[in-house]
Amino acid sequence: MNYKKLIISVIGFCTIFYSCEDWLDREPLDVVSEGSFFKTPNDFIVYVNSFHTTTGDWTTSESLRDGSTDVQTSTNYLPDRIAGQSTINSGPGYGYGNVRSANYLIKKAREYEGDFEGIKQAVGEAHYFRAWYYYVLLRNFGDVQWIDDVLTMESEELYGERDPRNLITDKIIADLDTAAMYCMVEKGNGYSRIPKWLALLVQSRIALYEGTWEKYHAGTVFAAKNPDPNKYFVKAAAAAKEIIASDKYQIWSTGDTANDFYYNFNWRDFTSHPEIMRWSKMDIALDIHSHRYLYIQAFMNSYGPPKDLVDQFLCKDGLPISLSPLYMGDNTIEDETKNRDPRFDQFIFNQDDIWQIYEDGTFHNYDWVFKEYIFRNVLNSNGTGYQFRKRYYEYYKYHDSQFEDTPVPHYRYAEALLNYAEAKAELGTITQEDLDISINKLRDRVGMPHLLLSNVPNDPKAIYPELSPIINEIRRERVVELAGEGFRWDDLMRWAAMSKLVGKRPRGAKANQFYWPHNLPVDENGYLDMYRNIYPNGYQFKLNRDYLWPIPESQITLNPNLGQNPGWKQ
After folding, report:
1. How far, in Å, CA of 561 to CA of 308, rounded?
2. pLDDT of residue 16
3. In this structure, are residues 296 and 391 in contact, taking their beta carbons and an 8 Å threshold?
4. Could you give the count of Cα atoms lying within 13 Å of 83 in the half-sphere of its Cβ?
5. In the chain, N or C: fewer CB atoms in 10 Å?
């Protein structure tokens, strides 16, 4: 077995061995390797490699966070949380196993007698991953316990109260400061070692998450204790600005405004891509693959973008459809895409697009696929009529009935630009220069007019009429640029914006333009209305409960001091 296969085997073993166990019952790797491990820099790298399978970097799990929102809707199923049907034991586990593993490496680094320079990268990555693990706990539960040591069952710290969410965020940010200090300054290949710049991108994301949470949940049962949202906006802007100022990354563009956004995601290898900051390199020979991710996404997927998202795309004059004379209406999807932000036509399949169906090896055109195929099997039908094209790759090699090796991008420089603009807008200090180095870079790729601070459109149908036009436009830009990449659920959570969806049913396109609508219901205006019969009351997310998951009863039994989150019975 060569060295690369050995590393992959270690990663796979660690993932399988640890994935299903509660952290209180686990033993760290020191049990089997105390006498011989952590003696060389390579030992630290081998250990930290096991963390790379645990954050969404090697899977598509994070992209699923858009599911069943106003960005991506299933035809026939609502998750319990957004349907208001979650129970106290239906949420994620309150697990610290990964945290403990990171703590163990950091502890061993303090004991290491060799040159710290040799292990600095591994230690930086351990801080990066610990920060990510705590971010997941923060998103799920709010207040959690901060534990930064390797504890035993007898440790008193295990049985204490939870720490406030902003203390946890401060610790996360400190971990990412350490990661940025220790991790390599080079960009790297994007799929193995963690660079400084990825730590800063994640730091900007998490600081923005906490800042907006504290601002928009103020006065609710989810309010942070002693909130200081501006502190986090400053940090988010600073981290993103450092990435921008480094000039390490750029928005990829060839000048082809009609196609660049689509092809941005469809490289066979992202090593030299100027915008992709993290991606999964697949290798079926090493059992690293995405199963049938893009195949299922393109041909067997019941998820589709709803009309709420479609209506967010501006017209080519930079105005929303409620204001622009260029809007051609929505009698057909062709009409809807005319004179619109080119990202819309590159986001969904349209009449001129070719699909490749691998069962028969035949290229099928719009008439067969778009108007017939997507409704052929009602259980897998796309009930909105809008079919995702973004991240679909015509040229990927589909190997057999179960696996493909299509690389998957996870983190983009575009996010840094959007985080920066939003943080500056939330601070009330955004300038035209800020927009020009952020939002307008994204618009340049697709040939859209610049967003001008002196002339921000005031959309009468803005989703957030209570907020300023500039914040509305920056949020619009975020959803248009990032839709389908896993951001929308977290954005709705941190903005306390689920009230905009409660009681609504997502609509699709006009039904009369399709050959095969089956029995999918239609609303009184002729739009596909996939939840009309199965969820007649629409989204039923409980606003005083469901922004946080419950602490599992089993954990409260072990430690009653944990308490319970708002709205869940103790």
Report:
1. 43
2. 29
3. no
4. 16
5. N
Highest mean pLDDT among 66-80, 219-233, 520-534: 219-233
**Contacts for 338 with CB less than 8 Å, ≥ 6 apart:** 326, 328
Q: What residues are paired with 73 via a beta bridge?
A: 304
Q: Is the confidence at residue 180, as pLDDT, over 50?
A: yes
If DSSP codes are grouped into helix, strand and coil, which group holds residue 244?
A: helix
Rounded to the nearest 10 degrees, the angle between the axes of helix 97-111 and helix 3-18 is 130
Return the H-helix or E-strand segment holding 265: none
Q: Where are the domains of the chain?
A: 3-58+84-246
The b-or-e profile of 343-355 (16+ CB within 10 A means b, else e) is bbbbbbbbeebeb
- Given a contact cutoff of 8 angstroms between Cβ atoms, the answer to whether 172 and 204 are in contact is no
Cα–chain-centroid distance for residue 519?
A: 33
Query: Chain centroid to CA 143: how far?
Result: 21
CA distances, 490 to each of 46, 66, 69, 77, 317 (Å): 32, 8, 11, 20, 30
Q: Which amino acid is at 55?
A: T
pLDDT at 355: 65
For residue range 19-48, what is the model confidence (pLDDT) as tens digits? 333 433 344 544 435 567 999 999 999 999
Q: How far is it, in rounded angstroms, from Cα 401 to Cα 206?
A: 39
Task: Give the CA count within 13 Å in the CB-facing half-sphere of 414.
Answer: 27
Would you state the structure tokens that stand for residue 352, as one six-digit string?
């001129």
What does pTM read for this prediction? 0.91
- Residue 488 CA to chain centroid, in angstroms? 7
Report the CATH fold assignment for 3-58+84-246.
1.25.40
Q: Which residues pair with 362 in a beta bridge?
A: 357
Question: Which has the closest alpha carbon to 258: 342, 352, 341?
Answer: 342
Q: Give the whole-angstrom CA distance, residue 291 versus residue 287.
A: 10
Cβ(72)–Cβ(491) below 8 Å: no
- Residue from 68, 92, 202 nearest 488 by CA: 68
pLDDT tens column, 148-164:
999 887 888 889 999 99
